[in-house]
Amino acid sequence: xxxxxxxxxxxxxxxxxxxxxxxxxxxxxxxxxxxxxxxxxxxxxxxxxxxxxxxxxxxxxxxxxxxxxxxxxxxxxxxxxxxxxxxxxxxxxxxxxxxxxxxxxxxxxxxxxxxxxxxxxxxxxxxxxxxxxxxxxxxxxxxxxxxxxxxxxxxxxxxxxxxxxxxxxxx
Length: 171
Known about the structure:
Elements: H1 3-28, E1 37-43, E2 66-72, E3 75-81, H2 83-90, H3 93-115, E4 119-122, E5 125-130, E6 133-140, E7 143-148, E8 151-157, H4 163-170
Antiparallel strand pairs: 1-2, 2-3, 4-5, 5-6, 6-7, 7-8
Helix pairs in contact: 2-3
């Protein structure tokens, strides 16, 4: 038997063990084994890069950054799972990986967006261009408003005391 064939068989054996562990955990929770859907994928470090990582409720892996929130119509609670476990629950690992890829890309775009500088027009007015759109943040009487191409899209109280949070609202 060739070395590559041995590695394939070992890999397949590990996948089978992993699949069995996921199914065993679902059975111990009296949860359905199939037909789960992912309602959302959450980046636990989207707003705080120092936030602690989550634990997969299915396999117990302690370092999960992208949580797949799994729902089932016949199970009362949501389960927070990592990508591989979400793929097992959905019976579609490729879909779970694609959903996570989209969230990863969004997180990277937001990180780059936040790094760019804003021009301060006056004490309470900040502007910049992003993807050919004019963005403007204005703070006025305890509220701030975010305008895109002259159209106001968001008005909030100034609980966002820090400029970075106001910028994130634009994203």
